[in-house]
Amino acid sequence: MTTESDADGVLVLRPWRAEDAPLLRAAIDESLDSIKRWMSWGREEPSTLALLRARLQSYADDFDAGRRWRYAVCVGEAERLAGGASLHPRVGPEALEVSYWVRRGCRRRGIAAAAAAALARHAFTSHGVGHVDICVDVGNEASAALALSLGFEPRGRLAREYPDGSPRPVLVYRLGSLEALRAPSSWRVEIKHGEPAPDV
């Protein structure tokens, strides 16, 4: 667990690497109940270290190919893993979806809000999107409140499925412009290797 004093108020968002698997394993184990409940990939947990390495390699491959952009969210220059945040092109043309999670020991410090706001800004300024969405599982009140606090507006429900095919209804929150973003100021966020894809 980190503190404000050792973090220096800096969050680093960088692409996942296969060698992050042990760090990710520890973060998942620390937060297993909430990850299984709220993350689409959580139903695969607990998984083996080999599976995590393969998953992270697929994340890196997607990032390099411009298919989607998943980031490790790290605290401070020492890059202590706090969670993850992503940009997904699954919400239609010229739009991106922001997703995020934070391990149990790093919650209630504004990390998720800062990471989500930074990626929303990045989506507008580097990917040139027309809007950014956050899709929240029905019942996840904390994540819904976060979306509203950043200036995202409710846009109704969307029917999704978990990887096993079971239903996963989500609530859609939308940010229509960069000017509408209410970004928190508690963290300075650095996005590394976040180059835009040729086409979004």
Highlighted features:
200 residues, disordered C terminus, eight-stranded mixed sheet, alpha+beta, 6 helices, 8 strands
Describe the 3D structure:
By secondary structure, the chain is α+β, with helices and mostly antiparallel strands. 32% of the residues lie in helices and 30% in strands. The protein contains six helices and eight strands; from the N terminus they run αβαααβββαβαβββ. It has helices at 4-7, 21-30, 32-38, 49-65, 111-127, 141-149, and strands at 10-15, 69-75, 80-88, 95-102, 131-137, 153-161, 167-175, 188-191. It has an eight-stranded mixed beta sheet, with helices on both faces. Helix 2 (21-30) crosses helix 4 (49-65). The chain is globular. It starts with a helix and ends in a 9-residue tail after the last strand.
Condensed summary:
Helix content is 32%, strand content 30%.
Topology:
Layout: H1 4-7, E1 10-15, H2 21-30, H3 32-38, H4 49-65, E2 69-75, E3 80-88, E4 95-102, H5 111-127, E5 131-137, H6 141-149, E6 153-161, E7 167-175, E8 188-191
Parallel strand pairs: 1-8, 4-5
Antiparallel strand pairs: 1-2, 2-3, 3-4, 5-7, 6-7
Mean pLDDT across the residues is 90
Indicate the low-confidence ranges by residue numbers.
1-7, 194-200
The string of secondary-structure elements, in order, is HEHHHEEEHEHEEE
Q: Quote the distance from N terminus to C terminus.
A: 36 Å
The major β-sheet equals: 8 strands, mixed
* Spatial sequence of strands, sheet with the most strands: 6-7-5-4-3-2-1-8
Sum up the overall morphology in one term.
globular
Helix content bin: 25-40%
Q: What is the oligomer described by this structure?
A: single chain
| Discrete helix count | 6
Number of strands: 8
**Which percent range describes the beta-strand content?**
25-35%
